[in-house]
Amino acid sequence: DASDIEKGTYPHFMLKEIDEQPFVMRKIIQEYQDEHDDIKLDEDIRKAMKECDRVYIIAAGTSYHAGLIGKEFLEKIAEVPTEVHVASEFSYNFPLLSEKPLFVFISQSGETADLRSVLVETNKLGHPALTITNVPGSTLSRESNYTMHLHAGPEIAVASTKAYTAQMAVLAILAVDTARAKGLTLDFDPMKELGIVSSAMEALCDQKELFDQIARDYLSTTRNCFFIGRGLDYYVGLEGALKLKEISYIQAEGFAGGELKHGTIALIEDGTPVIALATQEHVNSSIRSNVQEVITRGANDCIISLEGLDREGDAFVIPKVHSLLTPLVSVLPLQLISYYAALHRDCDVDKPRNLAKSVTVE
Ligand code: AGP
Predict the structure, then answer these.
(1) Is 300 touching ligand 1 by the criterion CB < 6 Å?
(2) Catalytic residue among 7, 208, 320, 357
(3) What letter would DSSP give residue 94?
(4) DSSP code of residue 328
(5) In this model, does residue 146 exceed pLDDT 60?
(6) Which atom of ligand 1 is found nearest the CA of 60?
(7) Residue 276, strand partner residues
(8) Would you give the DSSP letter of residue 33?
(9) In which band, very low, low, confident or very high, does the pLDDT at 3 lie, cut at 50, 70 and 90?
(10) Closest ligand 1 atom to 358 CA
(11) ipTM value for the complex
(12) DSSP per-residue string spanning 117-153
């Protein structure tokens, strides 16, 4: 049937979509670059970004996790104050809005009902909205003022992979464009850096056996798993935990390294898998002390680090990329580990129980 054709030689859409990420990066570079190597962006979006005094990112699930990284980009690169909100909570926890808010809806499908109800509300209030989506003709795209396209190609697997990395890439481009529009001096060429990301992703996709082995060693029988990280790595850990939960049904939690001692460390026992990310130089020694703390309590540690920050015994070292863009690469091992864990546990990778690809009910 049609779905077999689309899957090609891949056993699952998820694996195919993981593998497509290097190409999606190149496609994004191509689509967002003009003939003078400048960023190609709707002038109205540029103006809206420049004029707003605060960005409110609204999203759910994996797209929310991309939003957390997006906040770092917008604040660190473009100096735009940014808040990130879970769509379903927004209406009850409605924040005090700034004078000139810009709402940014991040949604792979563009159909998520929780986001739509926020958009209906912000439209009523007359606030401008930008939707970042993989489906430009979608409801959210049609009902907001501006759209940025992810260019990731159709994502079929319920577990989002390539849309997440595409969201972060597009947010990085948006942040750099805004910085330039504001006249900030910037030593960051997003297209060059995304090219490096693409190559790093490719190198990772060529090492699947290793992640299969990690999944087998750490996750084939465990009941739970922890992901820890600091800074950007913490947010990637949240995404790693979500991925693992949704397709392998292992209870997984992402934690900020420093929060462990405030409670969660009580759960660590002999053999508990702890996957730690160590890609951020300024927190490298502190995340490594957190790993020592869990090892002392018997945890089975698996450290994924960045070239240059690696230490003996790390399970995997990702190729060097710009420190702000590490999430785009460090998430791949987590996607692959989740994929193989689900396989080893005989789970339906592309269609996990109880989940729908796009959640069109509130
Ligand atoms: C991701 O793996 C999930 N299936 C889910 O969290 C998803 O990201 C969420 O429902 C948001 O969907 P959207 O991006 O289409 O709005």
Answers:
(1) no
(2) 357
(3) P
(4) H
(5) yes
(6) 11
(7) 228, 303
(8) B
(9) low
(10) 15
(11) 0.98
(12) HHHHHHHHHT--EEEEES-TTSHHHHHSSEEEE----
